[in-house]
Amino acid sequence: MFEFAPVAMAITTSSLNASRYVKVNDAYLRLTGMKWEDIKGERVITSGDFLSPQRLERRRLLDEEGGYELQEVELTHADGTRIPTLISAQRTEVGARSYDVEIILDISARAALQREMDAALIAAARTDVLTGLPNRAGYDHFIASSVASATSNGNCLILAFIDLNGFKYINDTFGHSTGDHVLKIVGQRLRDGCRESDFVARLGGDEFVVVLTMKQQDSEAAFPAFQRLMNTIFKPMDVNGTELSIGAAIGTAHLDAGVDTAETLLNRADRCMYEAKLIGGVNIVTDIQLA
């Protein structure tokens, strides 16, 4: 039964400082990538590892209670990778000698699933439920790394702050459901009008941001790109049989590498957007114009 058990099992001597392999089954060898001829009679752990608090606690349970159940332990595969496991152990006396019998469960799949769940929860926390775009948290996460990256590699980073014109009227006149539909359409138009490498987010309300990253020599293409986005926002949209139009004020700011932070970059784009609001109509104002 021991040799052919489907789970990894090992029998070792019970000495604290010099626990050695007595017997392992095939499942253990498959799990660890080890060969029996290489570990037979050898120490289970390298010197110093036995002093880890986790191992000392497992040793205490064996010495005082005769065993433990389902302790989380990371084993090291022969190739150096770490294997998350759950280990249960039982102290067994044979004559004057004592041995520890371990049963090891590979929980790599569970650990991978947990990582996927954690990633999904993080993604959900950074996504705007209404539009499916990144939300403020998603933007904050993106812009911090993008500013650092552009500062180090010399790329041009251009941020556009977009505030819709006439959205409050639509929301108040036709109701929040219609307003939500308009925001969805605008979000989709912005996403469709950008390159795959561009970043689009909804900060909240009727405020959106678009971040372009490009080579310095290509930065002049940013303004025409924002003009195209403005035009696509301005196109009439059909919402439940009603044709609606909406405008926008856009303020843009170019990253001043080594000077700007994520916060100052957004603040400058925000000021440009308000300048565009004051001018009225459908306007784009850049920080270069205000310099």
From TrEMBL:
Q: Which Pfam families match?
A: GGDEF, PAS_9
Q: Which InterPro entries match?
A: Biofilm_reg_signaling (IPR052155), GGDEF_dom (IPR000160), Nucleotide_cyclase (IPR029787), PAS (IPR000014), PAS-like_dom_sf (IPR035965), Rev_trsase/Diguanyl_cyclase (IPR043128)
Domain GGDEF stretches: 155-290
PROSITE patterns under this entry? Answer: GGDEF
PANTHER family on file: BIOFILM ARCHITECTURE MAINTENANCE PROTEIN MBAA, DIGUANYLATE CYCLASE DGCP
The protein's name is GGDEF domain-containing protein
